[in-house]
Design brief:
Number of domains: 2
Bound molecules: nicotinamide-adenine-dinucleotide, 2-amino-3-ketobutyric acid
Number of helices: 11
Distance between the termini: 39 Å
Number of strands: 12
Radius of gyration: 19 Å
Helix content: 40-55%
CATH topology of the largest domain: Rossmann fold
Strand order of the largest sheet: 3-2-1-4-5-6-10
Shape: globular
CATH architecture of the largest domain: 3-Layer(aba) Sandwich
Structural class: alpha/beta
Order of helices and strands: EHEEHEHHEHEEHEEHEEHEHHH
Length: 315
């Protein structure tokens, strides 16, 4: 039975991942932590501790006290918020990661790192971006993600630490709201479709980005952490994707189920520039070959489920 510590557990991913892990491994086996406390009731039964990941001593104390064998390091500042305060983003995203890796090394824990499509940049091939390719991002978030990937691979090579990770695309979900990223438009559009029948996008038409529905993202974490290590040629991190679309295509998918839905545009230059520096679509064949990655939701299936779940939530 695994004993897991999750950092940044009250975010968009953590909220759902912790419930899923508690179902799989037992409530008491999963220690949720975050720098804030609002939203703990959404995590279900199980232990919770306040933790700022820049405090390495507290992180170490909690991992030891929980007798953890696995650390899932979700704490971070997302792309758009990171550009507003690069110094804070570096401190949380890099120093927090270093602290978490050091504790994992000392306590011999398996380690999960959520990288991002942001680990690519303007010089990367933009279509079907390969697993191993140019990574020269021009955002502080992306710079920290590439550095984090390298650091995780370093800990694997140097210390034999069981580090694993994925490059998540934009994640779409109906439970916790996204935390200040560039792909957030693809979540907000569903809320506004139900509340107002229209949405104003801060991302321009024709801007393709990879996306994924949260149930597939949760499967990816569990699937990769359970994967047979002898099959893994890569560690940090695997390209994974489920779909790639631009705002008009997303609007058309929603309009099929919300007749009369209207998409307007008021493009935010800062977030648009970030989006344009990321791939249009990435190639996830390494993940498919090495640990049988296989997402279930395409745009249509995700849209049907999102609208149904959100209608129930907002009614
Ligand atoms: P989120 O912003 O929703 O949640 C991040 C959590 O980290 C928040 O609950 C926040 O309170 C916490 N946090 C911030 N500073 C902290 C600190 N100093 N100490 C401890 N906790 C702190 O983000 P998310 O979407 O859940 O993403 C989790 C991870 O996955 C991040 O590393 C993110 O970069 C990565 N990721 C997310 C996406 C996505 O679309 N959601 C895509 C790619 C990668
Ligand atoms: C963001 O937009 O910052 C995140 C991500 C793709 O990393 N959703």
């Amino acid at each position: 039975m695994k004993r897991i510590v999750v950092t940044g557990g009250l975010g968009q991913i953590g909220t759902e991942l912790i419930r899923r892990l508690r179902k799989e491994y037992g409530n008491d086996c999963v220690l949720a932590t975050d720098v804030k406390e609002e939203g703990t009731e959404r995590l279900g039964e199980g232990p919770f501790e306040l933790l700022d990941v820049t405090d390495g001593n507290k992180l170490s104390e909690l991992v030891k006290r929980h007798r953890a064998d696995t650390v899932l390091h979700l704490a971070g500042i997302l792309s758009a918020n990171a550009e507003k305060n690069p110094q804070l983003a570096w401190s949380v995203n890099m120093n927090g990661l270093y602290n978490a890796l050091e504790v994992a090394r000392q306590e011999s824990c398996s380690f999960f790192f959520p990288s991002s499509i942001a680990a690519f940049g303007p010089g990367t091939p933009q279509d079907k971006t390969p697993q191993d390719t140019v990574q020269r991002p021009n955002t502080i978030y992306g710079v920290a993600k590439v550095s984090g990937e390298l650091l995780c691979d370093y800990y694997h090579g140097k210390y034999g630490l069981d580090t694993r990770g994925v490059r998540f695309p934009g994640l779409i979900s109906y439970d916790a709201l996204p935390g200040g990223g560039t792909t957030d438009y693809a979540v907000h559009i569903y809320y506004d479709a139900i509340r107002k029948g229209s949405y104003t996008s801060f991302i321009a038409p024709g801007t393709y980005m990879d996306m994924m529905y949260m149930p597939d993202a949760l499967d990816s974490v569990v699937g990769l952490m359970e994967a047979d290590p002898s099959r893994l040629k890569h560690r940090c991190c695997f390209n994974i994707t489920a779909m790639s679309f631009e705002p008009d295509q997303l609007a058309a998918a929603i309009e099929k189920h919300v007749p009369g839905f209207v998409l307007n545009y008021d493009v935010d230059p800062a977030r648009q520039a970030i989006a344009e520096s990321w791939p249009n679509s990435i190639d996830d064949s390494a993940a498919r070959e090495e640990w049988d990655w296989n997402p279930k939701y395409d745009l249509e299936a995700m849209t049907v489920d999102m609208l149904e779940k959100l209608k129930a939530k907002l009614s």
